[in-house]
Design goal:
This protein is an alpha/beta fold. Helix content is 48%, strand content 17%. An eight-stranded parallel barrel has the order 1-2-3-4-5-6-7-8, surrounded by seven helices. Strand 2, helix 3 and strand 3 (72-76) form a beta-alpha-beta unit. Helix 10 crosses helix 11. The structure holds pyridoxine-5'-phosphate.
Length: 248
């Protein structure tokens, strides 16, 4: 029997900053959340520096890079400004996401197939700086082929639609994710997944053997209000591990 691939958990701390920014002060501090996440068993920290700086700030990225031992996955739009910031900090990974000013959260996947010319120099420069590039895409085979053609070593599959739907629609979306994850592996891409995952939706995704990392934020930060961040992460990990081992 082939050995199960380990499944990493990246904890997205954006919404700690959302709460802090609601009052404009220093509390709650995303860096403190990152330290708690590290102690609770997170494998990485994810933070999205948005163009409008609505949650994570430039100073947060400075401090995360300086003070956190876990790998930082910087989510960024494919802009010159974000490219310069990534090249200056050299985080472990950069996940390129589509970004619209008016959206509440990242709505769809990146059109890697349609934006090849625009993305190509960005992927090249990030990779040349030793940053592991991931493209946040819909679970569509043509997007994975485009990511591979662009030379990105990693794709993150958008699980938003799977998490928001139910019944037959959700089952169909899960099947699309399964097929995409198998295809990513077949063409040599490392496959991650994320967006909207909760205790209820995580198991079927965690059970997909070629997905090796989940990035989860909003639900964990929300649940932390009730049980604390460390406990929320611990429970999520348990569900992930159990599903991975075939127990769900
Ligand atoms: N992965 C990517 C690429 C994202 O943009 C986000 C949201 O910032 C997440 C994962 C985490 O999504 P959520 O906060 O809904 O768990």
């Amino acid at each position: 029997m082939s050995k199960l691939r380990p499944l990493r958990l990246g904890v997205n701390i954006d919404h700690v900053a959302t709460i802090r920014n609601a009052r404009g002060g220093k509390h709650p501090d995303p860096l403190r959340a990152a330290k708690i996440a590290a102690a609770a068993g997170a494998d990485g920290i994810t933070a999205h520096l948005r163009e409008d700086r609505r949650h994570i700030s430039d100073a947060d990225i400075d401090r995360l890079m300086a003070e956190i031992d876990l790998p930082l996955n910087l989510e960024m739009a494919a802009t010159d400004e974000m490219l310069a910031i990534a090249l200056r900090h050299k985080p472990h990974a950069a996940c390129i996401v589509p970004e619209k000013r008016e959206e509440r959260t990242t709505e769809g996947g990146l059109d890697a197939a349609g934006q090849r010319q625009h993305l190509s120099p960005i992927v090249r420069q990030l990779s040349a700086a030793g940053i592991r590039v991931s493209l946040f895409v819909e679970p569509a085979l043509e997007q994975l082929d485009a990511a591979e053609a662009l030379g990105a070593p990693v794709v993150e599959l958008h699980t938003g639609r799977y998490c928001e739907t139910s019944g037959a629609e959700q089952a169909a979306e899960l099947e699309r994710i399964r097929k995409a994850a198998a295809h990513a592996d077949a063409i040599g891409l490392e496959c991650h997944a994320g967006h909207g995952l909760t205790y209820e939706t995580v198991a079927p995704i965690a059970a997909i053997p070629t997905i090796v990392e989940l990035n989860i934020g909003h639900f964990l930060i929300g649940e932390a209000i009730f049980v604390g961040l460390a406990e929320a992460i611990r429970q999520m990990r348990e569900l992930m591990n159990s599903a991975r081992a075939g127990n769900s």
